[in-house]
């Protein structure tokens, strides 16, 4: 059968029909627990009690699996801490696997509950005026209350208890996650090292400042060789070319400007002969902001199109990023190679709540945040 060229799915004839809005055959609704076993109620198909009992046990098993998996998630959240790339990968697996099992178990249990325990109806929605009369509204209310009874939540204690059991740890998971947002008890040294600082503030094996080297080749950069205005290089710290943890925060973009192109947003004390170094880590969500438009001096992050004005301290001119790309103070050593004078004055990458203290300090000292 078709309607305007579209096929209409035919209802299952084995299941009685009920028209929404009027009780079937003008009779009042009969709750499942009041229906005699030898009486067939028009418009309702009640599952066999043996099948319903089997479904009840399956649902209880699913909810028990959800309970266990949710507890495993909470335990793993405490045990598997992050700190580097490898531990983060392990933590993701340790948290993702049990949470997936918990949610799948809960969903599977609900599906089996509806399909094998509750009565079945084939409902036909008739076209009528949007405003329902009082009789229809009363019938809908009566139908809702009957549905609550037919769900078996009260009649079948095994389903009720296992559902509550499965829901309890799932309800605790957000509380555990929110509790972890409080880092007031975290050692200050660890907090500062992991979030506020990069390896640019360290020294090399000879106790000298780190050189800026080309990403991929590890070639040190002479300021005299990087003399073409508009030029750009992707730069990493000397000795950390293959340290992914360090590069996640310390990768730079190096840009050469003509003196007249540099605007007030750039801290000139942190530049050398028109060469400016910015963090390559976008301040939105941490993607590499690696696209550069030479004529406009715009740095573009390809992930969410945040755009920064490199000639004006990498200030945000478009997109969701909320802060400029931090500028790294640079200089040259006695051989003319570019080196880092120190670490970034403010934390790089995406924002976190406590970073405001560092920015306020930099602004008070007249620096660029």
Automatic annotation (TrEMBL):
Cofactor: [2Fe-2S] cluster
Residues in Rieske domain copies: 266-339
Membrane topology classification: Multi-pass membrane protein
Keywords of this entry: 2Fe-2S, Cell membrane, Disulfide bond, Electron transport, Iron, Iron-sulfur, Membrane, Metal-binding, Oxidoreductase, Respiratory chain, Transmembrane, Transmembrane helix, Transport
InterPro entries recorded: QcrA_N, Rieske_2Fe-2S, Rieske_2Fe-2S_sf, Rieske_Fe-S_prot, Rieske_Fe-S_prot_C
Keyword Disulfide bond: yes
Broad class of where this protein is predominantly found: membrane
Membrane-spanning segments: 58-80, 92-114
Stretches with biased composition (Basic and acidic residues): 1-16
Listed Gene3D superfamilies: Rieske [2Fe-2S] iron-sulphur domain
Pfam families (UniProt xref): QcrA_N, Rieske
Localisation: Cell membrane
Ranges for region Disordered: 1-28
Functional summary from the UniProt entry: Iron-sulfur subunit of the cytochrome bc1 complex, an essential component of the respiratory electron transport chain required for ATP synthesis. The bc1 complex catalyzes the oxidation of menaquinol and the reduction of cytochrome c in the respiratory chain. The bc1 complex operates through a Q-cycle mechanism that couples electron transfer to generation of the proton gradient that drives ATP synthesis.
Family classification: Belongs to the Rieske iron-sulfur protein family.
Database matches in PANTHER family: CYTOCHROME B-C1 COMPLEX SUBUNIT RIESKE, MITOCHONDRIAL
Name under which the protein is recorded: Cytochrome bc1 complex Rieske iron-sulfur subunit
């Amino acid at each position: 059968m078709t309607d305007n060229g579209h096929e209409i799915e035919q209802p299952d004839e084995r299941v009685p029909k009920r028209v929404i809005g009027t009780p079937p055959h003008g009779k009042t609704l009969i709750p499942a627990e009041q229906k005699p076993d030898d009486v067939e109620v028009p418009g309702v198909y009640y599952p066999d009690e043996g099948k319903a009992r089997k479904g009840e046990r399956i649902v209880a098993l699913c909810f028990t699996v959800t309970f266990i998996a949710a507890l495993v998630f909470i335990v793993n959240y405490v045990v598997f801490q992050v700190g580097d790339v490898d531990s983060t990968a392990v933590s993701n697996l340790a948290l993702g696997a049990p949470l997936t099992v918990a949610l799948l178990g809960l969903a599977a249990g609900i599906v089996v509950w509806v399909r094998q325990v509750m009565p079945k109806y084939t409902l036909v929605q008739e076209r009528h005026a949007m405003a329902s009369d009082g009789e229809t509204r009363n019938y809908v209310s009566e139908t809702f209350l009957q549905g609550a009874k037919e769900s078996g939540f009260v009649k079948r204690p095994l389903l009720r208890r296992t559902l509550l059991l499965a829901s309890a740890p799932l309800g605790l998971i957000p509380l555990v996650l929110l509790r972890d947002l409080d880092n007031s008890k975290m050692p200050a040294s660890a907090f500062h090292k992991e979030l506020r600082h990069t390896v640019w503030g360290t020294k090399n094996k000879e106790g000298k400042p780190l050189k800026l080297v080309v990403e991929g080749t590890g070639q040190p950069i002479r300021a005299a060789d990087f003399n073409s205005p508009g030029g750009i290089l992707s730069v990493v710290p000397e000795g950390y070319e293959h340290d992914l943890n360090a590069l996640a925060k310390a990768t730079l973009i190096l840009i050469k400007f003509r003196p007249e192109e540099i605007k007030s947003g750039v801290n000139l004390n942190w530049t050398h002969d028109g060469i400016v170094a910015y963090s390559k880590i976008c301040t939105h969500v941490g993607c590499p902001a690696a696209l550069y438009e030479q004529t406009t001096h715009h740095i573009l992050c390809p992930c969410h199109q945040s755009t920064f004005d490199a000639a004006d301290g990498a200030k945000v001119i478009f997109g969701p990023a909320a802060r400029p790309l931090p500028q790294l103070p640079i200089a040259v050593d006695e051989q003319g190679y570019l080196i880092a004078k120190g670490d970034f004055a403010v934390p790089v990458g995406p924002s976190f709540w406590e970073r405001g203290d560092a920015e306020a300090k930099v602004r008070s000292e007249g620096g660029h945040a």
